[in-house]
Amino acid sequence: MRLPRHAQIQTRGRSFGPKPNEFYVISAPKIFHNLLPLSQLPFHIAARIVRFDDEEIGLRLIEMGCIQGTEVVMLRKAPLGDPLAFSCRGSIISIRASEAQHVMVEECNV
Fold first, then answer.
1. How many Cα neighbours within 13 Å face the side chain of 39?
2. Residue closest to 93 by CA, chosen among 69, 67, 64, 68
3. What is the predicted pLDDT for the residue at 28?
4. For labelling, which of 6, 73, 75, 110 has a CA lying 20 to 30 Å from the CA of 83?
């Protein structure tokens, strides 16, 4: 990302900023390229919880110990696809597929 020339810092009469043919590189926050909803996680694949899109569901899962950064694994799916069973911190947690849709995870690099 290129900053405009007028974006210079003035302190005690000295100018700190890009010289005529230079520019600053601003690092962006970490971008998760492989985010997927918890409901779409394949069987027996480890994933890490990144965020909760619904505050109410997020609070309920946090109370059960599934906080951001926790590793989860999909274990079972009911015959009609609802509910889903996940392993989280040594416990098996069962939630509805509609609720799992609001939990975003990224696959762990093992």
1. 14
2. 64
3. 44
4. 110
Instruction: Read off the CATH number of the domain in which 43 is found.
Output: 2.30.30.90
DSSP state of 54: S
**24 is written with which tokens?**
């600053």
pLDDT, tens digit (0-9, with 9 covering 90-100), for 71-99: 999 999 888 888 999 998 888 999 999 99
Low-confidence ranges of the chain (pLDDT < 70): 1-33, 109-110
- Domain range spanning residue 78? 35-107
Q: Within 10 Å of residue 100's Cβ, how many Cβ atoms?
A: 22
Paired strand residues for 35: 106
CA atoms within 13 Å, Cβ hemisphere of 62:
11
